[in-house]
Structure formats: C-alpha cells, structure tokens
Write a structure and sequence with these properties.
CATH class of the largest domain: Mainly Alpha
Strand content: under 5%
Structural class: mainly alpha
CATH superfamily of the largest domain: Tetratricopeptide repeat domain
Largest sheet: none
Mean pLDDT: 75
Distance between the termini: 76 Å
Number of strands: 0
Low-confidence stretches: 123-149
Number of helices: 8
C-alpha cells in the first residue's frame, strides 16, 4: 500500500484523473446493476427459471419483481404459478387476490383465481366451481359466463 508521502509526490493532474476514473467506473457499475434489477429484468429471469422448472430461483426473482412493482401483472401471475408448482396454493391464491386489487376487472386474473380454487378441491368438483363462478360473476358485475364441466 502506498504511503501518504508517496501520494503527495504525485502530480495533482494524475490524482484527479484517477479520482474521475474511479467515479466513472462506480457510476457505470451502479447503472448496470440498476438496469439488471428492474422489475421487467427480474421477471424475465424468473420466467427463464420457471421454464427450466427451477421453481425456487423463479420464486426469488419474481418475488423481487413484485416487491419492486406490485402492479407488474405478468410477474404476479407467474409467481402464482410458481407457488402452485411448489405446492403452496394458499400463497398462489393470495398473490392472485393481490393482483385483483390492482386489476379488479381483469378476466385473466379472475379466471386464474377460479381455476386455482377449482383445482385445490377436485373432490368437491362442480359445487366448488359453481360457487366460485357465482362469486366471480358477482364481483365482475356478470360480465361473462363461467364454463363448468
């Protein structure tokens, strides 16, 4: 490590150039880090992990994306799929209900919630599906008809 005396003997122009270079590299690193940690970038990484069936890593990336932007619909939907794949239907349902707060009239989110609730209790089958559809239709002012087998 250079001593303080040896640094004092360097010309100020060289010290200034070194200081500016360090500042530029630090700022560049910060901007690169920030760009790779946007909600969209986190979603893309989470989607890649999901497609590889690496659900734990997908969950981490998607939770970070939703934490940064709770209105990121695609990240929230995929996170609910990850929770379901990990065997946590309660967390999946909670994630979809959180999305419904931001998108109350979104048919995709509502149908995902109905599908998840329907798949949670296949033994109750038709009655669960019917009660789910009537709840969803009431909530959405009867904008569409549920399809029940």
């Amino acid at each position: 490590m250079p001593s303080l005396r040896s640094l004092r003997s360097l010309p100020y122009s060289l010290l200034f150039k070194v200081a500016v270079s360090v500042a530029v590299f630090a700022m560049a690193g910060y901007f690169v880090w920030q760009r790779t940690h946007t909600p969209q970038a986190l979603f893309e990484r989470g989607k890649k992990y999901y497609e590889q069936k690496n659900y734990q890593e997908a969950m981490i990336q998607l939770e970070n994306a939703v934490r940064k932007d709770p209105r990121h619909k695609e990240a929230g939907l995929l996170l609910s799929h990850v929770y379901a794949a990990l065997g946590n239907p309660v967390a999946a349902t909670a994630q979809l209900k959180a999305l419904l707060e931001y998108y109350p009239y979104d048919r995709t989110v509502d149908l995902e919630l109905g599908s998840l609730n329907r798949s949670k209790a296949p033994d109750r089958g038709r009655s669960l599906a019917l009660s789910n559809c009537s709840l969803n239709l009431t909530y959405l002012s009867e904008r569409y008809i549920c399809d029940v087998e």
